[in-house]
Design brief:
Chain lengths: 332, 254
């Protein structure tokens, strides 16, 4: 039983009108791991979370959470999941303590134990001082922490974190990352959706890249980066006019044609040994002035760009439309 | 079933706590009706003839019935806000009874309506309203008001789920509530209305409920109004609970 995947998704299709928000997604999350679901706005991330959290039914395909079908065994699935989202669904007119106590009671706990558990969580999320203040007086970061605490009330084995840090300032983001890391260290399985590559890089054991409702890659952050074929040499030129000539002189170092944009030239180098020295020699022989030169591993940004043909934060037209549909569907 | 009752009470409790923190709503449900009572009693009352009754005795049952219709706005606005703010998603992801969110909402309106009814009755007595019937009949009238208010909450629960914003809730709500309450026997005798309006007023459930309350409180002729008021209330609950729950489910995607 324990070896069974925490989340299994097979061929899930979900349409909103003419838009296929999910277009045949397959996905597996191992227990105790964080699976990062990475994609731009409108890629279908939130829709997939909503299917898994039993909020919407898929048009086709099956999904299981801890082995339980999200459609036919929805009631039992709900006992085993916690949901925290970008919308920070807490009652603004209730205090932090009241919010968490209410959620505990709705999970079936009596009032007194629910209250104890609420205090425990407030302590853990550093909200004790604000426990008796209405949530509407909370800052954005505090609200997210309260929302996350609400998802943890019943210590569910599977957590869905839907863009938990979207819209937060960098400091609150870092704080929340620490909290999430602490959580999954305790053995909880988490499905984390994000459009931030650094967030996926830092928190996720494994990353699934989703775009236009399809899964386009899955693997660890390193595996995905390796796909791009190792290190890249980045050269910043004194003069953009030298770009074409620098590409000519650097091309023999790579199997792929070097890329350039303005002053910057990027070369996916074959091997890293002596690369910098060789590059400097080639450029200086050609009389090209260099401002900066560095060797780096591909980032998830590179991976994303290579996989989808656009950058992760890009909100292309179709994406925007699907996102809008998701929002509308929420409001309906 | 026990779970449904417990969860409904938890949600109702939450709504009542919320209500105490939103003074603007409480003012809407207490001060505003008192102003209406005073307005009709002292500004319009002198010009309205109600053969057989003093205007204050005629007015109080009518205005209290009108006010119970407004109690449902707490449900409509609250549900609408819960949908927009994602709280409904949280509730749906919890292993709680499915009917509890709507059940708890409409139930908390009962508390709100009980408060409004009490305030209006006290106001009424201060400005000269008197019960002309037995204690039992007076209590039966209050029970009928609570039942009808509960029924109307289901109408507004449906509106709250359908509407896209709180402004829409208010405009749909007022467009429905104003004609229904004013083209009824609540403020003037139906016989004084022109053709067309009079026929509408005669079949209007608000007229039936107002007449039923007048029968129970000031001894107006019965015409089986109490029975019909109960039938209307139960019918409204049956129809709109099905519609609202259907809408809630559809929002849930099945």
């Amino acid at each position: 039983m324990s070896s069974r995947p925490a989340i299994e998704v097979e061929g899930i299709v979900k349409r909103f009108g003419d838009v296929r928000a999910l277009d045949g997604v397959d996905l597996v999350a191992e227990p105790g791991k964080v699976l990062g679901l990475l994609g731009p706005n409108g890629a279908g991330k939130t829709t997939l979370v909503r299917v898994l959290a039993t909020l919407i039914e898929p048009d086709r395909g099956t999904a299981r959470v801890t082995g339980l079908d999200v459609v036919t065994e929805a009631a039992r699935v709900r006992e085993r999941i916690g949901l925290a989202g970008q919308y920070a669904a807490v009652d603004e007119n209730l205090t932090g303590l009241e919010n968490l106590t209410m959620v505990g009671r709705l999970y079936g706990a009596e009032r007194a134990p629910a209250k104890r558990r609420a205090r425990e969580l407030l302590e853990r999320f550093e909200l004790s001082d604000a426990a008796d203040r209405p949530a509407k007086t909370y800052s954005g970061g505090m609200r997210r922490r309260l929302d996350l605490a609400a998802a943890l009330v019943a210590e569910p084995p599977v957590l869905f974190l839907d863009e938990p840090t979207t819209g937060l300032d960098p400091r609150s983001r870092l704080g929340l990352w620490g909290v999430i890391e602490g959580l999954v260290a305790g053995g909880t399985t988490a499905l984390l959706t994000t459009q931030y590559l650094d967030e996926a890089d830092r928190l996720a054991d494994e990353i699934a890249v989703i775009d236009h409702g399809r899964l386009i890659a899955q693997g660890t952050s390193n595996e995905l980066k390796d796909r791009l074929g190792g290190e890249r040499l980045e050269v910043r030129l004194e003069s953009a006019a030298d770009a074409v000539r620098s590409i000519e002189v650097l091309a023999p170092m790579s199997d792929e044609p070097p890329q350039h944009a303005g002053h910057d030239v990027t070369v996916a180098v074959r091997d890293t040994h002596g690369v910098i020295v060789e590059a400097v020699r080639r450029l200086s022989d050609a009389g090209i002035e260099v401002e900066d030169l560095a060797l780096r591993r591909p980032t998830l940004d590179d991976v994303f760009l290579a996989l989808t043909g656009h950058v992760a934060s890009d909100e292309d037209e179709a994406g925007g439309e699907a996102q809008e549909l998701e929002t509308r569907e929420r409001a309906a | 079933m026990r779970r449904l009752a417990t969860d409904t009470l938890i949600i109702a409790e939450r709504n009542v706590v919320r209500l105490t923190r939103t003074p603007e709503l409480l003012i809407g449900f207490t001060i505003q009706p008192i102003m209406f009572v005073l307005l009709f009693r002292y500004v319009f009352g002198g010009a309205i003839s109600t053969p057989g009754y003093t205007y204050v005795d005629f007015l109080i049952p009518g205005i209290i019935v009108q006010n119970t219709a407004f109690g449902g706005f707490a449900t409509a606005l609250g549900l609408n806000e819960d949908v927009r703010k994602g709280l409904i998603d949280r509730f749906r992801s919890l292993p709680m009874a499915r009917g509890a969110v709507l059940g708890g909402r409409t139930l908390s309106d009962v508390a709100l309506n009980a408060l409004s009814i009490t305030i209006l009755l006290i106001t009424g007595v201060i400005i000269g309203f008197t019960f002309h019937t037995s204690f039992g009949d007076a209590v039966a009238g209050i029970a009928l008001l609570i039942l009808f208010g509960y029924a109307f909450s289901w109408v507004l629960a449906f509106i709250g789920l359908v509407a896209k914003s709180s402004e829409t809730v208010n405009s749909i709500g007022f467009i429905i509530v104003f004609p229904l309450t004013f083209i009824s026997s609540a403020f003037v005798p139906v016989a004084s209305m022109p053709d067309g309006l009079r026929q509408f007023a005669e079949v209007n459930p608000f007229t039936i409920v107002v007449d039923a309350i007048r029968h129970l409180w000031i001894g107006a002729p019965s015409n089986n109004d109490v029975l019909w008021a109960v039938v209307w209330s139960v019918g409204i609950i049956a129809a709109f609970s099905v519609l609202a729950v259907g809408r809630y489910r559809r929002a849930a995607g099945g």
